[in-house]
Amino acid sequence: MQTMMQRSLLPENSLPGGFRFAAVTAGLKPSGRPDFSVAVADQPASAAAMFTGNNVKAAPIHVGDRHLQRSGGRVRVVAVNAGNANCATGEIGMQACETVCAAAARTFGAEGHEVFPSSTGIIGVPLPAEKLVAALPEVERQLAGTTENFAAFANAILTTDTRPKVAHALVSVGDRTVRIAGVAKGAGMIHPQLVPHATMLVYVFTDAAIEPAELNTLLHDAVEVSFNRISIDGDTSTNDTVLLLASGASGAAVDAKHPAFRAALQDICTSLAKQIVDDGEGVTHVVELQIEGATSDADALKVAKAIAHSPLVKTAWAGSDPNWGRLMAATGYSGAQIEPERIAIWLGEQQICINGGRVPDFDKQRAHEYLKNREYTIRIDLGIGQGKCRFWTTDLTEEYVRINADYST
Amino acid sequence: MQTMMQRSLLPENSLPGGFRFAAVTAGLKPSGRPDFSVAVADQPASAAAMFTGNNVKAAPIHVGDRHLQRSGGRVRVVAVNAGNANCATGEIGMQACETVCAAAARTFGAEGHEVFPSSTGIIGVPLPAEKLVAALPEVERQLAGTTENFAAFANAILTTDTRPKVAHALVSVGDRTVRIAGVAKGAGMIHPQLVPHATMLVYVFTDAAIEPAELNTLLHDAVEVSFNRISIDGDTSTNDTVLLLASGASGAAVDAKHPAFRAALQDICTSLAKQIVDDGEGVTHVVELQIEGATSDADALKVAKAIAHSPLVKTAWAGSDPNWGRLMAATGYSGAQIEPERIAIWLGEQQICINGGRVPDFDKQRAHEYLKNREYTIRIDLGIGQGKCRFWTTDLTEEYVRINADYST
């Protein structure tokens, strides 16, 4: 098994077979940059999807969910627009989404319910479906199973992201090689709430042969330790989607228990999740939280989320400020069971809190220097059990406020 | 009944009888400004208190709670230091707190358990009790029942606040006049979680004669609609405290059902709560949320809190950005029962969302202009029930980040 994080182009020969990609400018992004990404499977691909847990769901979430149910988990076309979320757009939003799906189905010779739509961008503005429909002929002309087109797909789904997010892996299955490649977007409104239906925009393609039910299990298990473990701002989007497609073009069959495939998929999802955090809006520090010694994994996760969502903690990180009392405060209101006098905290290798109080030889300057790193680790041992989790989050900077206060993003 | 919001000095003759006040510089604030506020009741006053719901509690929270239990709800001395929270300071923090209480008891001729301590400031740094003890003789010299000293008390409890927060009321009880006056501090880490024990630093004094049990009821009812309805940054402090003392010096007895007294106390608490929000760190907009049409008041509160804690909503407010989709998104993940297509939203008098979608004649510029006001109202009708709440919160600005990223606040 070989897993690599990619910033843009995949290496030659690493693209999963059975898919073609394209991206064009349909005219939704004010910048005029490409905003319509399409992937077409040569044959109906096995599909597993997870959607946002937000009770306000964008039209494409409803439509995509319905299409997957109708097709029995088969997808021919993935159609993703950036620049408009098609959310809080009422009945006309649903119609706009169906219009795009129907046109894509005609263009690529698929059934309407074999088209999987996604949208990302501003909420509450009607989606100009006609622009997307008008762009489909150009999409068809450009479709190709090349790393260049895959990179174009990865780029056109971006909104406030500063760079594409790509990861891939090769997995040996018997005497064959299976390819997996994934792309993601997301830099704000990032706090996926993963009910069995959740996340941001992530598309993972593989040429392994996998039944939809097995694919679902694989996806849920991978998401639980990756996209379910990140937060930038604690906001859960109305449009989060993770889609995993298996074309079978490699001729190698894989089930949900295949160790190497499971590991590769989890690595890809973790890589994409961390890339999303790393590219968070205004981010200057990426923090890995290691919570341990909780009475349950669920309690450990509560502590991680309270810390990851605390403006006071996140602003202290922005200033490389070793104000660990804010970590204590967030731990205290997390809802997790704690005994304050048993809490210990480390910044990297430096222990700064023992038995709920400051270590006697606290070296504040050393802690300050460590927190100047772009990436670092904070470990909190609650000291009362075996529950633990890893979680990735960011600081909260003036730049984040500037980006999101900009009228109208 | 007469209720007024006061920025500094109370009017003559409005100070509750039976209390004397003083504030001195003990040397905890690096600025050298007064940092030790003391109130002394001539006779043991009836007392009711509510403390933070954070599971990490500062030493004075533990000590104050214990003292109230031991004294049966009687307080002679209130001793508040700013500049050090005495939290996450372990056993030596408890000892430091007890040392200050014991010294104050000796100075003012009280029992140790008649002293009610509070601390606010940085977490995790040992409290230099000796500085507070050394300042007690000067406190004793200065003690006086004057509006000047009351103002000094209100000033010395401040930390990152930019101004003191004071409110008072006069209530006619039979042929007598009862006085109530309160002070508050708090500008960050403001999101009181009000279990029957909660909030930030608030001290309310009255010269009505009220038994501790009645006082408890009055305080809980008032806090529920005031301090329980504000949030600046969603962080719940380790030190939040609301203390209500009744000296009885007016000679007028009041019970928990006295309508005018109840109303005056609630007005004072609401005034202080809104003053805290108005003085929030880096705040440029104060927002009153009116949530209605929820299936329960609890659900309405969930929606208010989700909105009040959403960085994306709060940064949009900073930019006067009528990006109401972010309100929809936060409503969606609030956990409240909703039917998105029944949601309606107003900015002041302007309806911007109907049936979960944008109003047909949405006037974005008008909405933008309205959101330039420092104070405004956002009303959300969920359209599915009778549950409602009012809630006050703020925007999230670059200045908030600057204040809290400043190494080391």
UniProtKB/TrEMBL annotation, chains A, B:
<feature type="binding site">
    <location>
        <position position="409"/>
    </location>
    <ligand>
        <name>substrate</name>
    </ligand>
</feature>
<feature type="site" description="Involved in the stabilization of negative charge on the oxyanion by the formation of the oxyanion hole">
    <location>
        <position position="121"/>
    </location>
</feature>
<comment type="subunit">
    <text>Heterotetramer of two alpha and two beta chains.</text>
</comment>
<dbReference type="InterPro" id="IPR042195">
    <property type="entry name" value="ArgJ_beta_C"/>
</dbReference>
<dbReference type="InterPro" id="IPR016117">
    <property type="entry name" value="ArgJ-like_dom_sf"/>
</dbReference>
<dbReference type="GO" id="GO:0005737">
    <property type="term" value="C:cytoplasm"/>
</dbReference>
<keyword id="KW-0808">Transferase</keyword>
<keyword id="KW-0055">Arginine biosynthesis</keyword>
<keyword id="KW-0511">Multifunctional enzyme</keyword>
<comment type="pathway">
    <text>Amino-acid biosynthesis; L-arginine biosynthesis; L-ornithine and N-acetyl-L-glutamate from L-glutamate and N(2)-acetyl-L-ornithine (cyclic): step 1/1.</text>
</comment>
<feature type="binding site">
    <location>
        <position position="159"/>
    </location>
    <ligand>
        <name>substrate</name>
    </ligand>
</feature>
<comment type="pathway">
    <text>Amino-acid biosynthesis; L-arginine biosynthesis; N(2)-acetyl-L-ornithine from L-glutamate: step 1/4.</text>
</comment>
<feature type="binding site">
    <location>
        <position position="404"/>
    </location>
    <ligand>
        <name>substrate</name>
    </ligand>
</feature>
<dbReference type="GO" id="GO:0006526">
    <property type="term" value="P:L-arginine biosynthetic process"/>
</dbReference>
<keyword id="KW-0068">Autocatalytic cleavage</keyword>
<feature type="site" description="Involved in the stabilization of negative charge on the oxyanion by the formation of the oxyanion hole">
    <location>
        <position position="120"/>
    </location>
</feature>
<dbReference type="GO" id="GO:0004358">
    <property type="term" value="F:L-glutamate N-acetyltransferase activity, acting on acetyl-L-ornithine as donor"/>
</dbReference>
<feature type="active site" description="Nucleophile">
    <location>
        <position position="199"/>
    </location>
</feature>
<dbReference type="Pfam" id="PF01960">
    <property type="entry name" value="ArgJ"/>
</dbReference>
<dbReference type="GO" id="GO:0004042">
    <property type="term" value="F:L-glutamate N-acetyltransferase activity"/>
</dbReference>
<feature type="site" description="Cleavage; by autolysis">
    <location>
        <begin position="198"/>
        <end position="199"/>
    </location>
</feature>
<keyword id="KW-0963">Cytoplasm</keyword>
<keyword id="KW-0012">Acyltransferase</keyword>
<keyword id="KW-0028">Amino-acid biosynthesis</keyword>
<feature type="binding site">
    <location>
        <position position="199"/>
    </location>
    <ligand>
        <name>substrate</name>
    </ligand>
</feature>
<feature type="binding site">
    <location>
        <position position="281"/>
    </location>
    <ligand>
        <name>substrate</name>
    </ligand>
</feature>
<dbReference type="GO" id="GO:0006592">
    <property type="term" value="P:ornithine biosynthetic process"/>
</dbReference>
<dbReference type="InterPro" id="IPR002813">
    <property type="entry name" value="Arg_biosynth_ArgJ"/>
</dbReference>
<protein>
    <recommendedName>
        <fullName>Arginine biosynthesis bifunctional protein ArgJ</fullName>
        <ecNumber>2.3.1.35</ecNumber>
        <ecNumber>2.3.1.1</ecNumber>
    </recommendedName>
</protein>
<comment type="function">
    <text>Catalyzes two activities which are involved in the cyclic version of arginine biosynthesis: the synthesis of N-acetylglutamate from glutamate and acetyl-CoA as the acetyl donor, and of ornithine by transacetylation between N(2)-acetylornithine and glutamate.</text>
</comment>
<feature type="binding site">
    <location>
        <position position="185"/>
    </location>
    <ligand>
        <name>substrate</name>
    </ligand>
</feature>
<comment type="similarity">
    <text>Belongs to the ArgJ family.</text>
</comment>
